[in-house]
Amino acid sequence: MTSLCLLFPGQGSQESNMGRELAEARPSANELWLFAERESGLPLREIYWGGSETDMAQTQALQPALSVVNLNLWLEAKPRLAPAAAAGHSLGEFAALAAAGVLSVEETVRAVVLRGKLMSQAGAPGQGMAAVVKLAQADVEEIVKRALSDTGKELRIANYNSPAQFVLSGEGPALERAAELVKERKGRAIPLAVSGAFHSPLMAEASAEFTRLLGKLHWSAPAFPVYHNATALPEPSADGARAAVERQMTSSVLWVQTMANLRDAGCRTFLELGPKSVLGKLAKANLEGLDGLEIHSAADLAGIEALGQA
Prior knowledge:
Layout: E1 3-8, H1 20-25, H2 27-40, H3 44-48, H4 53-56, H5 59-77, E2 85-88, H6 92-99, H7 105-122, E3 127-133, H8 137-151, E4 155-162, E5 165-171, H9 172-184, E6 188-191, H10 204-214, E7 226-227, H11 238-246, H12 255-264, E8 267-273, H13 278-287, E9 294-298, H14 301-305
Parallel strand pairs: 1-2, 1-8, 2-7, 8-9
Antiparallel strand pairs: 3-5, 3-6, 4-5
Helix pairs in contact: 2-5, 2-7, 5-6, 5-7, 6-7, 7-10, 8-9
């Protein structure tokens, strides 16, 4: 049997009315929205079912709201699925952990509420992120080295998303210099609408505070492997999972290697549980030509009902 891997997206997958159909059809799904609103103190349904794109991009609201969507899709799909593994991109890693039973749904929501607050407050003026496309990894790594040398400012590859898609994170002068170098090499650098330099050492203070919360949560061994962003590997123990998550906020998202490791572990069917098909597209980019590859997405109740038995 082809092994099924669940994929849970992170920031950038939000859209208007996400999760609304399921919440209006299932009281339990709406209750999770209410729980997240109580924990965050924010009108999440008002923001995502009728707010502006600017409001929807705010990290402190986005992280709990998107996690609720991801989690509700998993809870609805769970009786139909027998996953062999899971992975989540950045924020999505927390939904993957909940799906595998490493954290409870409630503790997952509490964690991402604090994560969103800390990350929204951690950014300093001039810090940010930029996507880089149409260049190979070696070129992007060389650009980062040169921008660091030229400016003396922090810069790193925050996301290794696909063989031709990366995200840089750091301080303004280094990002600007990197954009110039990307253009020289016929690539494209796209500034991202985020509040800070995520997945970089500039998140160290926020990461330290978040780690204190993680130590208070109840961690369990995963029911199936969850591949972590910071290592691209699964952790079989509760302590190992927590240690990997503690590194996540300041570490790069090793998505290219994660997809390769899932492939090597036998995963051939990938199901994205989230508002869009962002990770499905990345799966295609990372695993193009793989025999038996199947990529599916379920963004709403209709998508869930269409799922066959795994």
